[in-house]
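User: Can you help me understand a structure? I only have the sequence.
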Amino acid sequence: MHKDEIPPGTLYLLILKALARGGELHGYEIARWIEHVSQEVLQVEEGSLYPALQRMLIKGWIKAKWGVTVANRRARYYRLTPLGQKQLEVEISLFERVVAAITRAIQTA
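Assistant: Let's start by predicting it. Here is the structure, written out as tokens:
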């Protein structure tokens, strides 16, 4: 099946949602969750994911700590902060607004 890149402006939304649903996750788990819930349509590139996570740490939307995976590998685990939960609500609202506008545009005769 063909995989598509994440649409511009939605990566923060998807990462925040993954963390809201999954608690503490490392980067690979976040990427896999997004791919899974999109039925393997969306693909998260490492070159986009990790810089986005770093920006989100700086903004205070997420926190991180080092841990060990079930495969005994060192990984950084991320979790949502209260500020991140608020930002998730903002991101959802913005996304819904844009989708509604695009839907109106494509349904215009």
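Now, to help you interpret it: The helical segments are 11-22, 27-37, 46-59, 82-106. The beta strands are 4-5, 25-26, 42-43, 62-68, 74-80. Let me know which part you'd like to focus on.
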